[in-house]
């Protein structure tokens, strides 16, 4: 069955589709960066509301700012922006078709279609999943990267920006000039204080072109912080085949785990769907939830994936089953990370580690090590190094965290323990690889990358542990080094 509005009535038995009239939906959200995570998370929450007869005036219009987004647009428009979600749980497989997205804007170099759409006062939320490294921040201190060529361009050409943030500023300028109120900008990326970060990026860009506009945005627009969580693998031929085996021809199905969490700061200047009715948590204490998730789950992914890549383990569940990598993950998180994480209502750090360990071990979820290890230049500073800085400052154990960084360096050298090649997997791979190879004989050269480590490399205990581990990884091998850490 080829997925479309016309074939929804013919969905296979046991697969539920939209019970609402999609022709009656009107847009309220534009989402930029429409990948698998958004469709399994925010779009799913909205679909649940629509199934309950709510939020029919909050439908999603998809958008992108990169040339590859055009391929996703073509696939989704061909099936009326419907998505097959396939839940992979050890107890069984469940599928549903969601319909909360109703259109996908054309991709343009000057972002004119995007600007025109979000300048429309009917759009009350502009949300984003543009990856952790997509917010134009300095990796060392988190400040706005004003010298980045994209930001220089958008400041010089505010009417024809090349980035999502330039488009947001341009649309807000049009709304202000027309006497309309602003929209809420809602980041759905894995960043500590993601709302604060996107606010600073937008305001910094606006100040570069129109300080008065920046003041208006600061006073009138809102940028809620949020924490998002659901393991969503990339889609490839096996996922498409899985949907076909269920009886649905979907060009871009999404597989996901049986777990979702969305914690949101209730700060929406132009209204919002009743997210809490679909299971989201609305709170003024997002940061504590964020810290637990980013420092344990997202950092835990880096603990697993760098070691897994060096040892040739293909999936995260395979890493959890590995006799050394799984125990290494548990030891680092329990002994070195959990002491720097606060509990949230109903969940201690220790219980959270048990929860994510079970999720990571799910053999039905084929989440590749390569996907999780991608862009370590953003993920290590965002997920691992904050805890490492706390540990160095407090003088608490950090041997395992130092080993995490040594494994990142070892992975970036570009070969596995068996001699096979690790293909480039970072926007700055060439520089990272050259530095990693130089650090084989001089570990300090890796820590001298102040764009990632700042002054951490000057901390004697950390530098010594890092150097010792990196030397051992090259001299003794990854398995022997992990075994030594585990004692």
Structural key phrases:
487 residues; alpha/beta; Rossmann fold; N-(1-d-carboxylethyl)-l-norvaline Dehydrogenase, domain 2; 2 domains; five-stranded parallel sheet; three-stranded mixed sheet; 11 strands
Summarize the structure.
This protein has 487 residues and is of the alpha/beta class. It has 21 helices and eleven strands.
Task: Describe, in plain words, how this protein is organized in 3D.
With 487 residues, the protein is of the alpha/beta class. It folds into two domains: 5-284, NAD(P)-binding Rossmann-like Domain (Rossmann fold), CATH 3.40.50.720; 287-486, N-(1-d-carboxylethyl)-l-norvaline Dehydrogenase, domain 2, CATH 1.10.1040.10. The protein is 46% helix and 10% strand. The protein has 21 helices and eleven strands. It has a five-stranded parallel beta sheet, with helices on both faces. A three-stranded mixed beta sheet has the order 4-3-9. The chain has a three-stranded mixed beta sheet with strand order 8-10-11, with helices on one face. A hairpin with a 2-residue loop joins strand 3 and strand 4 (92-98). Helix 16 packs across helix 20. The longest helix has 26 residues, at 286-311. The radius of gyration is 23 Å and the shape is globular.
